[in-house]
Write a structure and sequence with these properties.
The complex is a heterodimer of chains A (132) and B (334). Chain A is built from three helices and eight strands, in the order H-H-E-E-E-E-E-H-E-E-E. Chain A has 132 residues and is of the alpha+beta class. The chains are: A alpha+beta (132), B alpha+beta (334). The interface between A and B is large, with 34 and 43 residues.
């Protein structure tokens, strides 16, 4: 039986080759599909608008971290939680509307008086917008 | 051996073709996303194709135009002049805002009312700290200084005249007007598909290149998760009003900024109300109006006016108006 199989393969190298090709394609396809389903790395653009125009800073993959930036009215602290959500933890602005916006995964955050904006960068698997 | 090299060559050629096609697909399916600080908030536009920068830039111009007219805070705006000098000759955009505000004030039976700014002022919404006005002050303001149709009139020359003691804030409708203008500009500029997001007041139209629907999440204010989804291939306007972003705290209690036309006090029926409409002006004005309505009245009013809405009540119940389940999906279990 084994000899018969070997003969078959010896006689048809194309068949072996195509079998390897199909197997390799399946493996590559599986890897591609799995990688598409993995959570995307979230990056954020932080825009600081001051008297000298707009300054942009890109940050990526933050977890359990805080970042202090200098806005028009003083320090604005941006915080990331364990799941990569972001919020404005504190601001020197009088209204505190930005702090009240709470945690956000998808929608932008802004401190208007402080001139600070935190904008999650879109990925292909994210939603298009959040109504709030 | 030659055959093996032949196959290898074929595989490499196919791989190159696949990579090129994938790159082209990414270029075509990726939107241009641009956010700017305008009208005291963040405006975001997502547009296809990715080279729509000029159309997007022109779209933002509509927000600049509306802000110049309707900003409550910018001292040189037409609204600021009206509030300060009690009269102003409205230019085209400002007249459009006033007329739209009057239309939705009447349609909503007075629940949408830009003249409630005087009540918001009494509660400290325009200052640094909240304050609780006396009952007699609220009653007097409600009877003497509120009622948009009564407070804002036109003389024979078309001059807009604001009654003494009254105050107007177009924050509940100006965003919708700006979105509508921006959409018209972008459409005319040849932008094939786009979404305009004015801090949660949303308009989208056109087909995305990958054929997927536009996906909008309704924020759950209790945990900042997703309360429901709206997925549509057809153009829609979506707007949400809530008590969780703009409020004052007085003696440890939160007071939202949307006032009841019957009592003159902040309404406490809901945490959020999301409304769907066929145009962004209606969605913007009606989400505020419906938020101010008591639940039974709101259900009946929405049914009569065919306004699909999703309510999250103050005690955590989720309610839909008749037919709204066609628009809202994946609603969070109660």
């Amino acid at each position: 039986m084994n000899e018969a199989r070997l003969k078959l393969f010896n006689g048809c190298p194309d068949l072996v080759f195509f079998a390897i090709l199909i197997f390799a394609s399946l493996v590559a396809w599986s890897i591609h599909s799995i990688s598409e389903k993995l959570p995307a790395n979230r990056s954020f653009i932080i825009k600081i608008i001051g008297e000298n125009g707009e300054h942009r800073q890109e940050v990526a993959n933050k977890r359990n971290e805080k970042l202090a930036v200098s806005g028009k009215l003083g320090q604005v602290t941006i915080e990331w939680d364990n799941n990569g959500r972001v919020r404005i933890a504190s601001s020197s602005c009088p209204c505190q509307t930005c702090v009240n916006m709470g945690w956000s995964s998808y929608s932008s955050l802004i401190c208007v008086p402080g001139g600070v904006m935190v904008e999650p960068q879109a990925t292909e698997d994210t939603i298009d917008a959040v109504t709030r | 051996m030659k055959k093996v090299f032949g196959y290898l060559g074929l595989i490499i050629a196919l791989a190159v073709l696949l990579l090129v096609r994938q790159k082209q697909h990414l270029q075509v399916s990726k939107p241009l996303v641009e956010s700017r600080m305008l009208m005291d908030t963040i405006i975001t536009i997502r547009a296809y194709p990715i080279n729509s920068y000029e159309a997007v830039n022109a779209g933002f111009g509509a927000f600049v135009d509306v802000e110049k007219n309707a900003s409550f805070y910018q001292s040189e705006s037409q609204l600021a002049s009206l509030n300060r000098f009690r009269k102003v000759m409205p230019d085209e955009t400002f007249l459009q805002i006033i007329e739209a505000a009057k239309k939705y004030h009447r349609l909503s039976e007075g629940y949408f009312d830009p003249s409630f700014a005087v009540l918001q002022l009494a509660y400290g919404f325009y200052g640094d700290a909240g304050k609780l006005p006396a009952a007699s002050e609220i009653e007097k303001l409600l009877s003497d200084n509120c009622g948009f149709d009564r407070m804002l009139t036109f003389d024979d020359q078309g001059l807009a005249i604001l009654a003494t003691g009254s105050l107007v804030d177009f924050g509940g409708i100006a965003g919708g007007i700006a979105i509508e203008k921006a959409a018209a500009i972008m459409r005319a500029a040849g932008c094939s598909a786009f979404l305009i997001d004015d801090a949660g007041d949303i308009w989208f139209e056109g087909k995305k290149p990958d054929g997927s629907p536009w996906k909008i999440a309704v924020r759950d204010p209790r945990d900042n998760g997703v309360l429901a989804m709206i997925e549509s291939h057809e153009p829609l306007a979506v707007s949400t009003s809530g008590d969780y972003e703009r409020f004052v705290v007085i003696d440890g209690k939160k007071y939202g900024h949307i006032m009841c036309p019957k009592t003159g006090r902040p309404v406490e029926f809901y945490s959020s109300v999301t409304v769907i409409a066929s145009n962004p002006v209606a969605a913007d004005a009606l989400s505020t109006a419906v938020f101010a309505m008591p639940p039974d009245f709101a259900q009946e009013w929405c049914k009569q006016n065919t306004v699909p809405a999703l309510f999250l009540t103050a005690d955590g119940k989720i309610m839909l108006t008749p037919g709204a389940d066609k628009y809202f999906s994946r609603i969070k279990p109660q």
